[in-house]
Write a structure and sequence with these properties.
- By secondary structure, the chain is mainly alpha-helical.
- 78% of the residues lie in helices and 0% in strands.
- Helix 2 packs across helix 6 and helix 6 packs across helix 7.
- It is globular, with a radius of gyration of 46 Å.
- The N terminus is likely disordered.
Length: 328
């Protein structure tokens, strides 16, 4: 009886166990298929990612290849812009410092002329009995005084050139002081004299450079042609006028005790202006002006070319007393 009562219970238990086993197998199958699907999806995504990575790498390489010529073009453009941004030399001007061009050579001649004028001014001041400061001051004024007067007269808010280009002050003052301190020793050691030909030659170079630079300043300022010539004369000679006043001697360019001087500056400035009016390029007009100024200055010194004095006895006697040997 007991066995008969337990039979349905056993059958029910076995059925539950079979159902549980079937459910577990189904869950396992689902998990396995889900895992396989996940693995498959992961593999596909990896493959796709690799392809995308490869494509991106290819695009980067392609873009780099395409940018190379563009980068070179940009570099060339930058270099061109930098060159264009550099300060350009005015056709009637000079570069800031000397270089291997005709305008650059004019700048070098300007430096050389500044030194020459400072030396002769210092020597004249020393001969008049001035001390070291006086000789340095007079030498510096001789060198830069003409350009200073020119800049003041041209106006338009201009400052004296040596306030922007301080090297002129150093060249002038240094040369004047060195001349005061060492000229007598140089005369003894090297046999120099106060009227050596190389001194006159360097002075001629200074006149040739200064008269052209003065004319250039007048042209850039837009003054009339006659004023441009006067700018050349002032630049080359007005420092000497101030020098002569300071050492209390007759102003050279106004008297005939020495050969012509302002006339040579006017000739050089006029030659530059005429060459410019004729359409000559900047280098050729500089050569024309400097050559005319130097050529006439050397000729005047060689052949003692002087302007005539007033044709009266008292005028001739006055000129003779100031050193004009033609009327002795």
């Amino acid at each position: 009886a007991v066995s008969t009562a337990r039979a349905p219970l056993v059958m029910s238990t076995r059925k539950r166990l079979a159902d549980l086993a079937s459910a577990g197998f189904a869950r396992a199958s689902f998990a396995s298929s889900a895992s396989a699907s996940a693995v498959s999806t992961a593999r596909a995504s990896l493959n796709t990612g690799a392809c995308k990575s490869f494509d991106a790498s290819g695009r980067v390489k392609s873009s780099l290849a395409n940018t190379r010529p563009r980068t070179r073009a940009h570099a060339r453009s930058f270099a061109a812009d930098a060159q264009a941004g550099a300060p350009k030399v005015h056709p009637d001007g000079m570069p800031r410092y000397p270089n291997f061009t005709v305008p650059g050579a004019l700048r070098l001649a300007d430096y050389f002329g500044t030194s020459s004028f400072a030396m002769t001014g210092s020597l004249l001041a020393a001969a008049s009995g001035m001390d070291a400061f006086g000789c340095t001051a007079v030498g510096t004024i001789t060198a830069v005084g003409g350009g200073t007067v020119r800049d003041i007269l041209l106006g338009q808010g201009r400052r004296a050139f040596w306030m922007e280009e301080q090297e002129y002050l150093w060249i002038a003052a240094g040369t004047a002081l060195a001349t005061f301190c060492g000229w007598e020793s140089a005369k003894k050691q090297f046999g120099f004299t106060d009227d050596d030909y190389w001194i006159e030659a360097s002075d001629a170079l200074g006149v040739g450079a200064f008269c052209v630079i003065g004319a250039q300043n007048g042209i850039r300022a837009g003054v009339p042609m006659i004023a441009q010539v006067l700018c050349g004369i002032m630049t080359a000679t007005f420092g000497g006028i101030v020098r002569d006043i300071l050492v209390q001697r007759p102003t050279r360019i106004f008297h005939s005790y020495a050969d012509i001087y302002a006339t040579t500056a006017a000739t050089g400035a006029l030659a530059y202006i005429i060459a410019r009016q004729a359409g000559a390029p900047p280098s050729l007009r500089i050569i024309a002006g400097v050559s005319a100024g130097i050529g006439l200055r050397v000729a005047a010194d060689t052949y003692d070319i002087r302007l005539p004095v007033y044709n009266a006895e008292n005028a001739k006697k006055s000129a003779a007393s100031k050193g004009d040997k033609r009327h002795v």
